[in-house]
Amino acid sequence: MANVKFFNGQSFPLEMHKVRIIQKLNLIPIEARQEAMAAAGNNTFLLKNRDVFMDMLTDSGVNAMSDRQLAAMMLADDSYAGSETFERLDKAVNTLFGTRYFLPAHQGRACENLLSQIFVRPGTVVPMNYHFTTTKAHITLNGGRIEEIIVDEGLAVTSTFPFKGNMDVDKLEQLMQRHGREGVAFVRMEAGTNLVGGQPFSLENLEQVSAVCRGHGVPLVLDASLLSDNLYFNKLREPACAGMSLHQITLRMAELCDIIYFSARKLGFGRGGGMCTSNDEHFRRIREMVPLYEGFLTYGGMSVREMEAIAIGLEETLDPDMISQGPIFIEYMVEQLLQRRIPVITPPGGLGCHVDARAFLDHIPQNQYPAGALASAFFIASGVRGMERGTLSEQRDENGHEPMADMELLRLALPRRVFTLSQVNYAVDRLAWLYDNRRLVGGLRFTEEPRVLRFFFGKLAPVTDWQNDLVARFRTDFGDSL
Length: 482
Ligand code: F0G
What we know:
This protein is α/β, with parallel strands linked by helices. Helix content is 42%, strand content 12%. The strands form five sheets. A five-stranded mixed beta sheet has the order 2-8-7-6-5, sandwiched between helices. Residues 58, 60, 107-109, 132, 134, 190, 194, 223, 225-226, 263, 265, 273 line the site of ligand F0G.
């Protein structure tokens, strides 16, 4: 995005790219949306994309690629071993992070699987600023336990704190002393902390975390999947980073960590993932696992075309015009929602706009899944597909106890460079209508509840027939409009 002054004094996001390929969208009538939602068991993951107008489920693998990325895909060398494509991606990753070794994997959670198998032993603990769903699942599957030690501000829904993804360094030090080097598998810092609203950590905080880890000889692992958003905020909000280039900030972060992994469905705007390190021992241990679970060392389960696209995408991550588009659109959307008094996470972060479902639907108890109910109601009202990020995204413990999430969020992701400002305005308008009619929305209950990662394929039903009332009100207010 560009920093342009407008003649009328007002400002709005101005894109530094143009659209050259489009995909047609459908907006089906509200009655059809209600039917689609029922068929999907009120789980937005189970909707068919043909029934969706704006897909704000995720930014994963759905960012718009650049012309340079698409062109690079045509040059892919698909040899099983030793392909030139791998050399290009290897160089791009190691140049970006200043590391020595790159190990490919088919996506981010594949890296989490390998790292958990290597480092996590039954009874060990993995301190982290905050968990991500797949991360926690892999660590617990290997008998480990996570400890979330995000700073207190991180869980405050509304705040002006610029780095809500920071780790509480005192708590980290205490954990290290309590569990000792043997009891801590590794420490994990997540850039652009996903589940608390795409919130960044500061470079200063990473420096402090790294000092504690090095003091105790415990590896520090960086999840860099959402690094581009984090970098944008470091540059904007952290005085010490103002004079540094995006690449200098990245190199400094990498120096502070022992292993970096990422989902290239986010970082690099492609579909894939990988890990990098400069440590010979870590490299050797991870290398043994890659051919076993992912594919040979020069593709790791990725398509070579995607690898070419990722190599260019990683280069473009250092272009301020490119990486500012997501956060600036999100900031615009958050401001529009705040003007309409809709409760939303502040300050605006990366990845998407996060509506506070607990405040939006304060009449729905947490065990009736307010964030899931809001995702369902919003799809019916608008054709916009968001994602529940609350109690449904948790899973029961071994005793069948259901933990309540810290936050109940409806995440409306803004895949980078995909939507126009008028589409964002449409989503804001329909959410404002739903807020006015929020008392019509009721809770959900499970009809099918999987044991692991239940949010992906569990099915739910409304506890009353509130969805019919919502559709009737829509027709009263909007006539025969879509
Ligand atoms: N780490 C973070 C911070 C993520 O956001 C994700 C994925 C992963 C790891 C796993 O990577 O999907 O390539 O296996 N986040 C997606 C999302 C799924 O919608 O937020 P993956």
